[in-house]
């Protein structure tokens, strides 16, 4: 992924954690004969080990291609940016449409595994991640043991050991203060909830840039 310096983040782990709590990832592997194959799946990220984990259906033929290089794509909120929001448009007309977004690409070696106990740990941790905060969080022990065992036989685990992590936050950081403010205000006034979320991210990003020490 192309990441210009002004769109890079110095805390990729925090961004990965935020994205994986809300969005599924896309695991892409490449077969020299059939080409790329992709599966959408929830992702667990261990920042200490640099390993991303998940599981796919056993009936999904992607895992049968064996180990090799893989890419996990994580995306977040995104929004179209119209040139009409730039004050500089009225000054010189040198503006074009663009897109604001957050994304992370994790590249590394893919391992598929069928060990039931290891797969169950992945399922349990994914459940804990996404059920935490609920009034009555579901846990794997809530379901009958025979039912869980049957479901575990129907999935295959996957682990990707990160060799490269590319984290990008494209939030108009390369624009002038006036154009940045114009985009933030335009997105904040949009009827689309995701555009409003991008505006909130922009405000947070600018606040950190203006006061990096948090004073």
UniProtKB/TrEMBL annotation:
Signal peptide: none annotated. Pfam families: FMN_bind_2. PANTHER family: PROTEASE SYNTHASE AND SPORULATION PROTEIN PAI 2 (PTHR35802:SF1). This is Transcriptional regulator.
